[in-house]
Every structure is written in C-alpha cells, then in structure tokens.
Specification:
This protein has helices spanning 16-24, 46-55, 66-73, 87-96, 98-105, 124-138, 148-153, 171-185, 202-205, 215-232, 243-253, 273-282, 304-308, 314-327, 360-363, 367-377, 389-406, and strands at residues 10-15, 39-43, 74-76, 113-119, 157-164, 196-201, 257-267, 295-303, 333-341, 347-355. It folds into 2 domains: 8-234 and 362-406, 3-Layer(aba) Sandwich (Rossmann fold), CATH 3.40.50.1440; 259-358, 2-Layer Sandwich (60s Ribosomal Protein L30, Chain: A). A 10-stranded mixed beta sheet has the order 3-2-1-4-5-6-7-10-8-9, with helices on both faces. With 408 residues, the protein is an alpha/beta fold. 43% of the residues lie in helices and 18% in strands. It has 17 helices and 10 strands. Helix 8 links the parallel strand 5 (157-164) and strand 6.
C-alpha cells in the first residue's frame, strides 16, 4: 500500500448516547486519517444528539460551528424520544427510519469498512446497530432501486465495537447486553451478522467502578487507542495486514468475536518485544482466559527511525508473536505486523487482537439478570417495539450455539 488513495477508508457509525460518546472522540483525529470526517452519530433523542455534538466542540476545525456539525454528522431517527432502555424499541425506530439512515450513509460511498460503535447496555444503540448491520449486508432490496448502494455494500466489511455495562448496573442493562451480543453475532436465521465483533467491558477497564461518569472518558480513550492501532496497521505497514485479514479466517472458523489487549508507551530501548507482548496480554479489555484464544493478530507500532535503523524488525515481531503463542500453549490462526509512527522518541505500542476465546467469563456477570428478566420483558414493548417469547428464544439459541462452539 504505497499510495494514500489505496489506504483502507473507514467510516464510524454510532448509535445511542454511549456510542455517541465514543464517536465524539474520533472526530477530526489527525493521527488517524483512515477515518477522516466519515462519522455519523445517531439517536432517537435530539437532546442526546446535541450533547454528543457539544462534546465535539473542542475538535471543530476552523470555520465550523456546532450547527454545521449537527447537520453533517448527526441523525435523529424514529418517531419516539428515546427507547426506554429496551432494545426492541431502538430496533423499531431504526426499522421505521431505515430509508433516512441509508440516505445519510450514501455520503460515505467511498468507505471500505465500517466501525459500528455501541454500548450494549442501552436501548437505542443496542437495538439499532445489530439491525442496521444486518440490513446493510442483506436487506436493502426494497430501498435501493438503482442497486448502487447494494452493490457497494457487497464489498464493505462491517465491524462492531460493543461495550459491556458495568457489573453493578441495573438488571435490564445486562438483559440488553446479552441480547445485543447475540444479535451482533447472529442474524435471526442464525447466520453471521457483523464480520467482526470487538468487545470491551466497562468494569474490566474501570476497576474502581466509581460510578461518577468520569470513568467513561478513560474507558473511551482506551477504545480509541485500540481502534487507532487496529486501523493504522492497514495504512502503513512493512507487511500487509488489514481488516480483510482480521475477518476472513475467523469468519471461516465461526470465531469472529475479539477483544483488544493493549500496552502503549513502552521504551523500546529498554524492553524486549516478548515483555511488551506480555504487558499487552495483561491488559485485555474483557475478562478472559488467554489460553482459549483461537485467532490472534499482533500489531507493533514503533517510531519510524527505530524501524529504519533496524532496532525493531519484522522478524523480531514474528519471533515475539511465536514465542507468545508458545508460552500460552495456543495454536492460533493469525498474523503479526510492524507499523511506523511519527516521533523522535523510543516509545513502542502493542495491540493484540484476541479472538475466538471462551465468552463465558464475560457472560457470567450478566446471565442471572438476563434469565430473571426474560419472562417479564417478553410481550411488553412499552413503546414501538415488542419482544415475543419466540424472538427471545431465537436470541438465546443463537448465542448458546456460538458460545458453546467457542468454549470447546
């Protein structure tokens, strides 16, 4: 990938207040031009949209104002103000306004890959994002008479970043999270939905569980750091690794859920790569047993002068990756790559994308709440959406089959 116009072009679509918080930190990030300004935040509540745009104010380019950003980067959808923390209402709103959503996304027609951002405990984003991904991939026949959008989407890759609620949060948020994970992984008929599902846990990234709201800034910054490293690897690498590499083999293995494990600002003059990989492993974004990993990708980002001087080489990265897999006694499908960054220092960053692992350590924090609320929430939409017992059973069956296969 020698020329800038061959770089993978990403777009960010976020729905709900939590997803909007994440997306607001992507806005105009000059160090990650893979996204540029292809960012859309969606919500059923205009006040929440306004809050998201207000967070972007500090990043506005010269000559822009918040109204222009609201017009070009925000979309209010659905006829109800909010989803009432019930995901079927969020899905119903997206279904109601799918045509408007599609119309806005056509502005991103140069996109090669989407990053869909959502907090899984809520109703708006958690309801709409899995539905939108499914429709973008499979369901636009009635909305796209000229087939332009449909043909473009045939080659677009859809990744999703889902954030698990704090363990202390109310049971309905954990009910939503279990349903949201299942729906990101599988469509109603049990087929793969998102091409790649990335996961982070609020409580795992915020061990203090302060509940003040301020912890979301550091959690979202950790998410942005991981995505920057993941996207950057496809823009300028010594060996090619990109989103197609991330999704192809895991999809064939039916093991396409991942979590980042990150270590940054490690002194490359002091630490060996093997140590850096170990530090990254300690910082996985959800609770997991690394030994159950079935797919892994390692991205090492080092100052350009260290690469040019041969202080860190591709064989070094490959060797550290092989040592890491051997140490954890795992036989993984995956790749490793070395990518440069600007700067005169010696700080090295490592991202491990760990996939196909046993999801039970994450689910166990929510399953009791999910089962407790299952019967009481079926048949009572409380808005434009409803959830039947049959629909809930499909959600459970889809998740059970996926989790069981990856826990073997």
């Amino acid at each position: 990938m020698a020329q800038s116009d061959t770089f993978t072009r990403w777009s960010v679509i976020a729905s709900g207040e939590g997803g909007g918080r994440i997306a607001s930190q992507f806005f105009d990030r000059s160090e990650n031009p893979g996204i540029d300004d292809r960012i859309l935040v969606m919500n059923t509540n205009r006040a929440d949209l306004r809050n998201t745009i207000d967070r972007m104010k500090g990043e506005l380019r010269a000559g822009q104002n918040s109204e222009e950003v609201m017009e070009s980067h925000a979309l209010e959808f659905g006829s109800q103000q909010g989803a009432g923390n019930f995901f079927p209402n969020g899905e119903a709103c997206a279904q109601e306004d799918l045509g408007r959503i599609v119309s806005r996304i056509k502005d991103f027609s140069s996109t090669d890959a989407f990053m869909h951002a959502v907090t899984l405990g809520g109703g708006t984003g958690n309801g709409s994002i899995p539905y939108v991904v499914d429709q973008f991939k499979n369901g636009l026949h009635d909305l796209d008479d000229d087939n332009v959008f449909e043909n473009w989407m045939d080659s677009v890759i859809h990744t999703a970043f889902g954030v698990w609620p704090h363990y202390y949060e109310q049971p309905q948020r954990h009910f939503n999270a279990v349903c949201g994970l299942s729906r990101l992984l599988r469509t109603e008929d049990g087929e793969q939905n998102a091409d790649m599902v990335l996961l982070a846990s609020n409580s795992h990234l915020d061990e203090q569980e302060s509940g003040t709201g301020r912890e979301y800034d550091s959690i979202n910054e950790a998410i942005i750091t991981a995505v920057d490293l993941m996207i950057g690897a496809g823009r300028e690498t010594r060996s090619v690794i990109d989103v197609k590499d991330y999704v192809t083999l895991p999809s064939q293995m039916d093991a396409y859920h991942f979590t980042p494990a990150v270590a940054t600002d490690l002194n490359g003059d002091v630490y060996e790569l093997e140590y850096m990989f170990d530090k990254a492993t300690e910082n996985a974004y959800i609770p997991m047993d690394v030994g159950t990993t079935a797919a892994a990708y390692a991205i090492v980002r080092a100052p350009e002068r260290m690469i040019e001087n041969g202080e860190i080489t591709e064989p070094d990265v490959y060797g550290a990756f092989r040592e890491w897999t051997g140490k954890h006694e795992i036989n993984v499908a995956g790749q490793a790559t070395l990518t440069p960054k600007q700067g005169r220092g010696s700080d090295v960053d490592v991202l491990l994308l760990l996939g196909g692992f046993d999801l039970n350590p994450l689910l166990e924090h929510s399953w009791d709440d999910f089962e407790m609320l299952g019967d009481s929430l079926t048949g009572h939409g409380g808005g434009s959406g409803d959830l039947s017992r049959a629909e809930l059973d499909r959600i459970v069956d889809n998740l059970d089959s996926y989790v069981a296969k990856n826990a073997e």
